[in-house]
Amino acid sequence: MNKAAKIYVAGHRGMVGSAIVRKLKQEGYSNLVYKTSSELDLRNQSAVNTFFESEKPEIVFLAAAKVGGIVANNTYRADFLYDNLLIASNIIKAAHDFKSEKLLFLGSSCIYPKLAPQPLKEEYLLSGYLEPTNEPYAIAKIAGIKLCEEYRNQYNCNFISAMPTNLYGPNDNYDPQNSHVLPALIRKFHEAKLNGSKSVTLWGTGSPKREFLHVDDLAEACLFLMDNYNDSQFLNVGVGEDLSILELAELIKDIVGFEGEIVHDTSKPDGTPRKLMDVTRINNLGWKAKISLQEGIKSVYEEFTSKYSA
Ligand SMILES: NC(=O)C1=CN([C@@H]2O[C@H](COP(=O)(O)OP(=O)(O)OC[C@H]3O[C@@H](n4cnc5c(N)ncnc54)[C@H](OP(=O)(O)O)[C@@H]3O)[C@@H](O)[C@H]2O)C=CC1
Ligand SMILES: C[C@H]1O[C@H](OP(=O)(O)OP(=O)(O)OC[C@H]2O[C@@H](n3cnc4c(=O)[nH]c(N)nc43)[C@H](O)[C@@H]2O)[C@@H](O)[C@@H](O)C1=O
Fold it and tell me: What's the CATH code of the domain at 112?
């Protein structure tokens, strides 16, 4: 990327978008444009077109989406499908119509079949049934990948896609119902410690395995791909190591310093049994995650406590 390029970060207030903005600023990019969802509703094609027509961004990071954990995905099923289809379609189409030079679309590891072999290789896309709890979101993300591929095939657009594993970091969502597991557990253990509770309840059995990538590592990967990757094949972005939800809970319990026990609420869904990313392709290109899970959780826990009010 040229340091003077006009760069649009869609979703700049979110966890991923804000990490991309931090990284761009650190690297000396200053011609950045962004809008909040109340200033520009990305589900509205004509508003998106007006924005692209006036700003003409050369580079687009597409990090806006309706996002949430397993229960949010399973509850707001229509919104996760509709909003994410429209956001991806409107921005990708406008980037073509108003001649952006390059666009990076962000999907998610939930695009893979529920029972795909592990680790998940990029070629396993569309080789089996999806996990039901997040099928609507996954279908919208698969549509985004295909839009990037087909705008490249038909119109020669330089649109690329990256599939991050489960993420965590600054500006995460700590809502007790709608968040992902890692921020949810930080909050649960912290509140249990403050309240002197005897136990913390994990959703599901604790046996599903997940991989966690710090969002600053993801932001570095996004800039790396913008600079170095121009291919229609989407790429996995992860660490290539996972742990069970119970192991994650034990780790967070230790970092927070909670001394009670962990109990299970098996009325809540487990979701996909495992979704370990095969990161061979992106590692071979020259990018690798750097932040360990232990140090990453310690730093987000510090951020969480500095802002926490009951
Ligand atoms: N979090 C995770 O674990 C993972 C995330 N991803 C992907 O990374 C991307 C970013 O996720 P993340 O940062 O966690 O999500 P966040 O919820 O933190 O941020 C999403 C952003 O999207 C914007 N947005 C949502 N709806 C609209 C809309 N209708 N119009 C305009 N803007 C909108 C919001 O803007 P505003 O704040 O202005 O309302 C918000 O800042 C998504 O594509 C997601 O699928 C992929 C894998 C894992
Ligand atoms: C990133 C990814 O995120 C979503 O998929 P997910 O990985 O299944 O999401 P999750 O982080 O919410 O849960 C992971 C595991 O953890 C268990 N779990 C225990 N206790 C809590 C708990 O307190 N909260 C939550 N949320 N989960 C808990 C939970 O039961 C599950 O077994 C997708 O819908 C989709 O959005 C997507 O792409």
Answer: 3.40.50.720
Ligand nearest to the CA of 238: 1
Distance 238 CA to ligand 1 centre (A): 18
Question: What is the amino acid identity at position 141?
Answer: K
264 annotated ligand binder: no
pLDDT mean over 291-306: 97
Packing angle of the helix pair 45-55, 77-97 (nearest 10 deg): 30
User: Closest residue (by CA) to atom 19 of ligand 2?
Assistant: 203
CB 62, CB 91: distance < 8 Å: yes
Determine if the peptide bond prior to 269 is cis (ω within 30°).
no
The total number of structural domains that make up the chain: 1
Distance 128 CA to ligand 1 centre (A): 26
Pairing of strands 261-265, 7-10: unpaired
Which structural domain range is residue 165 located in?
Answer: 7-169+212-241+275-291
State how far the Cα of 142 lies from the Cα of 116, in Å rounded to an integer: 16
Query: Annotation-wise, does 13 bind a ligand?
Result: yes
Closest CA relative to residue 262, chosen from 208, 184, 198, 308: 198
Indicate whether 286 belongs to any domain: yes
Q: Which of 15, 67, 104 to mutate to test ligand 1, by most ligand atoms within 8 A of the CB atom? A: 67
pTM for this entry:
0.98
Q: Note the ipTM here.
A: 0.98
Distance 66 CA to ligand 1 centre (A): 6
Q: Using the predicted structure, report yes or no on whether residue 310 has a pLDDT greater than 80.
A: no
pLDDT in tens, 150-163: 999 999 999 999 99
Q: Is 165 in the pocket of ligand 2 (CB under 6 A)?
A: no
Q: How many CB atoms lie within 10 A of CB 299?
A: 15
